[in-house]
Amino acid sequence: MVGGNINLKKRFRFGEFIAEKIIKGVSFISFAVIVLIFIFVFREAAPIFSPTKQTSTTNTELVQETYGEESSAASETVTEQKNKSVESSGSEGDATAKNLLGNEWQPVSENPKYGLLPLIVGSFKVTFIAVLIGAPIAILAALYTSFFAPRKLREFLKPAIEFLSGFPSVVIGFFALVTLASLFQNLFGYQYRLNAFVGGIALSLAAIPIIYSVTEDALSAVPKFMTEASLALGATKWQTALFVVLPAATPGVFAALLLGVGRAFGETMIVLMATGNAALMSIDFFEPIRTMSATIGAEMAEVVFGDTHYNVLFFIGSILFVFTFILNAVAEFYVRNKLQKKFQGTA
Q: If I label 277, which of 59, 74, 196, 307 is the partner at 20 to 30 A Cα–Cα?
């Protein structure tokens, strides 16, 4: 090379060094926190797989306190209490596989039943309704924003809809509880005011911004030459949007749907307020339901620490955790990579 030696050695900059270490530290802490949450949830759920016989009361607890001379009546009471099985807030019962796969969720009763099927069915029902209603709206809105909307309107629409994703869930729950429930009951005339249908519509309001945002990004990533080639061949804008742009962005749209499903499946406050909270084993969309997340939210504060009911609630949390983690992982690592490879021509 002409012109003397060029010093290619990287200069040490203290500010960049500190920023790099801070970013690495924050990333490591975030990853470690997620792993620790995983460990904590599964550790609390683990005892139901190795149940140990527990007694809910002891003889010491059964002795009634007397002040002064012990009366014969008190002795008889103590004897009766010793002879019968005393159970506080319902016996703990055993979370056997048969019990967990049952159709009844009655954790506080003489014979506790921890059947998870009504909760799982309720979660899938309300999620199905939310995605069925929310996905078409979000995808069409994203298609309009990226393909048809004027530039100034697009600059307003996208941040405005994404802003809705930060809306507090409790506000959407109140809106569904007070307004939507009465409106749809008067409109359709069904029996139960709060049910899976109302909860699903309310959940769709929470899922739409996520599906919209990811879908719009995927549509915007479609190379312009595909659009221009379609228009040059005589296709209309709608034909180009529906049969060229949208199919090309299918992996991204699929990722958006998965994220929307994960958002709806794990939502707590909206379903707690809008679905009626009855653990019914039914496929009727107009009957009350109870979801897994709502069960945890409603009962966790009332259980005895360490008992079977407590462990089963953590087991439900583990199922939710695994389900949403798998959905997000598939959407982020598999589908999005497939989208990038497709547009880079390496797929």
A: 307
